[in-house]
Amino acid sequence: MQNNSVFWDAAERADSFYVYFEEIIKNHVRELKSAFKGVDFLYSFKTNPHPRIVKSIVEEGFGADAASPGEVFLAAKSGLSREQIYYSAPGKKISDISGALGKCVIIADSISEIERISELAASAGLCESIGVRINPDFTFYSDTGECSKFGIDEELLFAEADRIKKLPGIKITGIHVHSRSQELNADVLKKYYDNVLALAQKTEKIFGSPLEFINLGGGLGIPYAAGDLPLDTERLGSAVAGGVALLKAQNPGLKIFAETGRFAVGKSGFYCAKVVDIKTSRGKKYIILSATLNGFIRPSIEQLITSYQKENPKPCEPLFTKPGAFEFIALSRKGTEETEKVTLAGNLCTAADVMATDIILPKLSVGDMVAVSNAGSYAAVLTPFRFSSHAKTEEFFLDINQKLSCRL
Ligand SMILES: *Cc1c(COP(=O)(O)O)cnc(C)c1O
Fold it and tell me: Which of 35, 106, 167, 222 has the fewest CB atoms nearer than 10 Å to its CB?
């Protein structure tokens, strides 16, 4: 746990808030940079677009994985150039595409989207280099593909290659393959990356021209629950280094990217909520916090899912990872050795805003706080702050010089 005084400083200004520690972000980002030689990284803005976080990551040399025109805008605002911003999302509207032309590398997500980009680029007199997102004929765990709303099935893309090559206004210069998130097994990722590199070579052969970039996608996981072992980034990095170096030797202009959101910032954030009331109902003790579901929704989703399925519920990122994914830390001014069994609930008028049920915590009083771990990624961005018209949760950033700033 980080220095508690930071949380109390923040609590002077807000009742429920996130705190992000830049030092933790820098450590994670630098770990990736030193483990993966020959691979460049893109930061997945959707995990947390807080401007200070973006700045901290971008200044380490990361580009952007943008999932919307808004994220393309934020990435450009952070100083990234067109070649450093990759816009990949299903269902881009005409206005999304025309607004993105020339500002980023657009990754087409379907055959009809390739045609749409071609039409718009050609009518604007441009020749746009674009990427395609491929739904490969393999997954993390199998040598055959699955159906997906993302990307173009590998077989379909190759069957259409001759026609696509002739489309005006565009040139396909890269591929993007992303299958899933939150993998902790380096061997699984290594095999997947090898498969993507092989798919890239196949793409070059079928399209008859060298690629300018290969985006390996995301997947780098972080430990959530007790017992999760951290991903061995050094082992993974050295395992893929050979394949990466070989392709780059054959094609010196080639860029190879990996994407990450949560590995960079997931561990850097804590969500904190003040205790506003404490009550006991028929023997059950409730700690009522100033915002739970409407401050950090993921623990409540975990409660919901595990109430229906206790044994091995399937992950569904970024809403649900696994049981026990968040640690609850009592921050009390008095500090006490005494513990008690409590249920952490919120101040919304719905029974669904429960963060934790019957957990053992040090004894809390009104005015104390509960901090929740693993709140850097898919946390503030998923907050349903419109619900019940409560105030938005504040976000604090503690920079490496220990200076605390707030966002709102
Ligand atoms: C969300 C997303 C990521 C980032 O996933 P993390 O688990 O946060 O690292 C990477 N690539 C794509 C295409 C995504 O949609």
Answer: 167
